[in-house]
Amino acid sequence: MKLIRLTYFSRSCLNRDNNQHAVAEILAIAAANNRRDGVTGVLICDDRWFLQELEGTENKVSATFERILRDQRHRDVALVTMLAVTERRYPGFAMACAIHDRDNDDLFRHYGEDISFDPRQMRGDRLSDLIEAVAQRALVGGKKWTKSNDTTVA
Ligand SMILES: Cc1cc2nc3c(=O)[nH]c(=O)nc-3n(C[C@H](O)[C@H](O)[C@H](O)COP(=O)(O)O)c2cc1C
Predict the structure, then answer these.
(1) pLDDT beyond 70 at 106
(2) DSSP states of 28-88 as a string?
(3) How far is the CA of 55 from the centre of ligand 1 (A)?
(4) Probe ligand 1: pick from 29, 65, 90, max atoms within 8 Å of CB?
(5) What is the overall mean pLDDT for the chain?
(6) Could you identify which of 9, 94, 130, 151 might form a hypothetical disulfide with 111, taking C-beta atoms 3.0 to 4.6 angstroms apart as the criterion?
(7) Is the per-residue pLDDT at 150 higher than 50?
């Protein structure tokens, strides 16, 4: 079965005051479904944007993305890339999550090439590199990182 990696970004419609709770709700469903479907990936959020990479077989990733497209908790979903890949970047993570905060803001400025982060202005490969860099730092730092069997947001 062909393995693919899909990258998109979207505008968050979550209430800022309730953001972490709402993200935790999304993650709980996402992790359960993704474990069932053999989908892995990472979700990065702040109070304005979602960035997500999903990897798995083409049919499962497409079905997941179709559900995500219909979700009212975000809008303006923009598909950035859908690539055939030979291996997963996030094996073992049914849906990892990292929050854009002071500890990783330098990465957003570096890859986004601007002080205020705007994924609409970024090339697809830069966006994917940003997601990977944020995920790696969260993994090394051991915080704000949600494993497939742990859906809490730090
Ligand atoms: C930003 C965002 C990311 C999401 N990521 C996933 C995901 O990785 N996997 C998943 O199954 N659902 C994910 N969801 C939730 C889906 O949109 C949907 O609510 C869920 O799959 C249940 O779909 P259903 O009610 O049609 O069964 C995400 C939602 C949002 C807003």
Answers:
(1) yes
(2) HHHHHHHHHHT-EEEEEE-SSEEEEEEEEEHHHHHHHHHHHHH-TTEEEEEEEEEEE-SS-
(3) 14
(4) 29
(5) 90
(6) 130
(7) no
CA dihedral 117, 120, 125, 130 (to 10 degrees): 20
Q: Whose CA is nearest to atom 9 of ligand 1?
A: 30
6 with 53: CB under 8 angstroms?
yes
Which residues have CB under 8 Å from 18's CB, separation 6+?
none
- Percentage of the chain beyond pLDDT 90 is 81
Whether 53 and 89 have beta carbons less than 8 Å apart is answered as: yes
153 alpha carbon – ligand 1 mean position (Å): 16
pTM over 0.90: yes
User: Residues near 136 by Cβ (< 8 Å), separated by ≥ 6?
Assistant: none
Closest atom of ligand 1 to 33 CA is 11
Name the pairing type of β-strands 3-12 and 74-84. antiparallel
Which residues form ligand 1's pocket by a CB distance below 6 Å?
Answer: 26, 29-30, 33-34, 43, 50, 52, 54, 64, 67-68, 71, 73-74, 95
CATH architecture of 3-141: 2-Layer Sandwich (3.30)
